[in-house]
Amino acid sequence: DAKTTQPPSMDCAEGRAANLPCNHSTISGNEYVYWYRQIHSQGPQYIIHGLKNNETNEMASLIITEDRKSSTLILPHATLRDTAVYYCIVRVANQAGTALIFGKGTTLSVSS
Amino acid sequence: ETGVTQSPTHLIKTRGQQVTLRCSSQSGHNTVSWYQQALGQGPQFIFQYYREEENGRGNFPPRFSGLQFPNYSSELNVNALELDDSALYLCASSFGTGGRHTEAFFGQGTRLTVV
Fold first, then answer.
1. Which of residues 73-92 of B touch A (CB under 8 A)?
2. Using CA atoms, how far apart are residues B49 and A52, in angstroms rounded to an integer?
3. CA-to-CA distance for B89 and B69, rounded, in angstroms?
4. FRET pair for B113, CA 20 to 30 Å: which of A68, A101, B13, B39?
5. pLDDT digits over A42-85, tens only?
6. What is the pLDDT of residue A1?
7. Pairing outcome for strands B100-101 and B96-97
8. What pLDDT digit, counting tens, does each position of A14-25 carry?
9. Which of B43, B96, B111 sits opposite A102 (nearest CB)?
């Protein structure tokens, strides 16, 4: 079973920041938080991952709380193309044989 | 584009038949994982191959089997197809060394319909 809890759906206006929350209260000390997204009928796309420090790349920012029990993925200026299902996943960092355990994710709808 | 390619993109098979799906990993990657995604659900892990050996498996029956070749491409074989095997099958590749792996990059998937 997935070790994360996400809201089933969220809406965001185009051009505004989209903040997607994720709860992972049972995360272990050696588990990273990964975010993937899946646009309809395509393969999941890697977005970002982190351990305890906040991370930023060209796609998004990841904010992890100090106790590591929750995190927020931030898309700073959402566009219509960001409409997708967003998955928050926790897993042991890059361990051989460790699967990505997907939950149902959050369906983000960006509208103009 | 991730550089992970899957073939075919769509496939229709009859119940009881066998099917082979193929995946070419991203250049430089030596690990391939396979996932099954039913309609409306998140992907479910089937198994992973690292340097031609299976090194992790999800809760799937033995009729789901795989291979990884010396060039690190991979096949997923499903025998005795059932209607519930209808799904999007996803392949993901990563690079592993010394027990550590990079993040996984997914292909576009093969849509299998069993009738």
1. 88, 90, 92
2. 29
3. 19
4. A101
5. 999 999 999 998 999 999 999 999 999 999 999 999 999 999 99
6. 66
7. antiparallel
8. 999 999 999 999
9. B43
